[in-house]
Design brief:
The structure is a single chain. The chain is α+β, with helices and mostly antiparallel strands and 238 residues long. The chain has two domains: 3-86, no CATH class; 96-217, no CATH class. Helix content is 47%, strand content 17%. It has helices at residues 40-46, 101-115, 119-137, 140-156, 160-171, 182-222, and strands at 3-6, 10-12, 21-22, 29-30, 32-36, 50-57, 63-73, 77-80, 85-86. The strands form two sheets. Strands 1, 2, 5, 6, 7, 8 and 9 form a seven-stranded antiparallel beta sheet that branches. It has a two-stranded antiparallel sheet with strand order 3-4. The chain is elongated. The termini are far apart.
Length: 238
């Protein structure tokens, strides 16, 4: 798939080059339509490593800005890499209402770091979120997190190195955190979401559901009038 800027025809890309993406503005998974691209003469003169283009979300019509890497400069055509980098990325979402105040505040900042591609800052905020949880729920919760990490690693068939990195980030007592990249950050993100769901969201929802079920069960029993055997008549007796 070729993406390029032609001297005569301008910016050219197949339909698939601007495939549908999740919009950070409206949240819809919609097609991107090109609205502005740099001119051939300007790019050829300045010869940047990357060029920027403006697209528009087909759902909400908000602008979307992306960067292409320049692969080759030619006299008539400038070839670009087919994969572009979005300047604005969709925000990671989580159900914060069930988290404690401290954990919600710290994990919200962690997700902001992840959306900004600040992977090591994201890891640091995940560590702080975990520590806040251990303080609130007790050191026993640290063992529970360890068991959940092992369960996630087994279910997702994570390699030992990645699993150990996640453990070191979330459970390590050393002030120095391991350096992580995009792939490990992605694993850490889904691990944090699942563990926080298990720790806070699932517990709160299940407890509320149990209370509601017991309330209606007790109310139903209270409305049932038991039969008095002394008032019952035996069928067929005088």
């Amino acid at each position: 798939m070729s993406v390029y800027i032609d001297r005569e025809e301008g910016f050219k890309a197949p339909d698939g080059a601007a495939a549908a993406r999740e919009c950070p503005h409206c949240g819809a998974y919609a097609q991107l339509a090109l609205v502005a691209a740099p001119r051939f003469e300007r790019v050829a003169e300045q010869r940047p490593t990357h060029i920027g283009s403006a697209f528009q979300c087909a759902a909400c019509h908000e602008p979307r800005f992306v960067k292409f890497t320049v692969r080759r400069y030619g006299e008539q055509r400038i070839d670009l890499a087919p994969n572009f980098v979005e300047v604005e990325r969709p925000k990671e979402r989580f159900d914060f209402q069930y988290l404690s105040e401290d954990a919600a505040r710290l994990f919200r900042e962690a997700l902001q770091c992840y959306s900004a591609d600040c992977h090591n800052a994201f890891a640091s905020m995940c560590r702080r979120t975990a520590q806040s949880t251990f303080v609130e729920l007790g050191e026993g919760s640290r063992l529970k997190w360890f068991e959940l990490i092992k369960e996630i690693a087994a279910l997702c068939e994570l390699d030992d190195e990645t699993t150990q990195t996640v453990e070191d980030v979330l459970l390590g007592r050393d002030e120095r955190l391991p350096q992580i990249g995009a792939g490990q950050a992605a694993v850490l993100l889904e691990t944090m979401k699942d563990i926080l769901y298990q720790t806070f969201v699932r517990t709160a929802k299940l407890t509320a559901a149990m209370r509601m079920r017991r309330y209606f069960a007790d109310e139903h029993e209270a409305k049932i009038t038991p039969l008095d055997p002394r008032n019952q008549r035996l069928t067929g007796s005088d």
